[in-house]
Recover the amino acids of this structure.
């Protein structure tokens, strides 16, 4: 009987994990479509992202509810409880990533043909690829409790931050040279900022992997401390 | 004996609630000092905010840990479990508000005398007051499980959003008239954006009050639905 309950419980945890990954897949798709909608001036895609944001929100609420039910029913301790706590935090970040994708889609809807600066377009495309890759890797680390990978995600967040700063400098130069580009330049900065924040959320998610795996809370820790905790020190 | 355990448990929940309010007080102070540091070009204040951010982070980690311990030990259900889940979400928002205050402080450190646009200064001061008031009210609603007040916080978030848009328009006009104001103008936009996000976090916190009080998840709901749920419909 005890084994049966435990098996059932394992299934429930596996189900939660699977649904987090599904939510992650949807959010990843939202970023990709928001970036594509903006870069290709494809209003249908931008509209679809805005329309589908409620699906991300619903998944968060459903998963929160499931986590509460499992806590109430199974009274988990130790690693199982850490998994559930990490899931509650992770889905908050996924939902906020969805919000950032929606912001990009909204800007995509007001960017008019020809008003779009050519050069930042390349950088934004690159930043979108980086942010999507970071999210995918963070989800992968979550699925496999991969601490090595999680360290790499935390470390690589700096790359997106550097890209953001580079884009800012470039856009400011454009704006100074030609004040007609100011409005669209600010839109570009907001898009880049949204992508940079997506990177931050992916980093948060990678830090929860440490918490799940080791029970040590690595949020806000310096990179060196994280590596030490993972046995790299 | 049962009564004793229950009393002990009540004390633990009360202790969690008190510590959330303490964390909220610290975060409120961080916003106020960040805004003052920026507006009065007071580097000592800006530095203090950056220095003290780790205290906010530590409070989040300690509270997460306490919540996990209480779940493991007390196996709470229904309203108690909802309180703890809401606390885990609330402190994430408080920590992110702390991050926004830190961003404002960092911008405060690079704003040089005379480079600061006079007019947005007034609006930023006003937005900082609004954001701080929203946070204080959200915390108050949390402490008193006040759904009426929580509705008002959700409703008033629109005021900060409108202020942000007004400031954006004004700063863009300045930038177009005098491209030398572009750099400082973008700094101003980022400060305003940080304040607008603080408002969003306060709104999130108000929405968790619904979840605690009624067990209904009002996040992402339209204002009309929220009012209906609270018996205003």
């Amino acid at each position: 009987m005890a084994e049966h309950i435990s098996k059932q419980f394992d299934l429930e945890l596996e189900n939660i994990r699977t649904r987090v990954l599904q939510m992650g897949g949807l959010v990843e798709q939202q970023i990709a479509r928001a970036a594509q909608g903006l870069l290709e001036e494809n209003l249908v895609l931008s509209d679809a992202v805005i329309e589908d944001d409620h699906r991300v929100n619903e998944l968060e609420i459903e998963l929160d509810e499931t986590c509460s039910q499992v806590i109430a029913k199974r009274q988990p301790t130790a690693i199982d409880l850490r998994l559930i706590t990490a899931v509650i935090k992770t889905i908050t970040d996924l939902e906020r990533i969805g919000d950032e994708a929606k912001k990009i889609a909204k800007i995509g809807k007001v960017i008019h043909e020809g008003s779009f600066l050519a050069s930042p377009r390349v950088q934004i495309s690159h930043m979108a690829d980086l942010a999507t890759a970071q999210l995918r890797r963070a989800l992968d680390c979550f699925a496999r409790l991969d601490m090595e990978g999680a360290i790499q995600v935390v470390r690589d967040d700096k790359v997106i931050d550097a890209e953001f700063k580079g884009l800012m400098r470039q856009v400011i130069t454009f704006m100074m040279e030609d004040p007609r580009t100011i409005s669209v330049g600010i839109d570009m900065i907001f898009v880049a900022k949204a992508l940079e924040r997506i990177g931050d959320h992916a980093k948060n998610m990678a830090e929860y992997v440490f918490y799940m795996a080791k029970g040590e809370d690595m949020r806000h820790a310096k990179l060196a401390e994280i590596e030490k905790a993972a046995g790299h020190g």
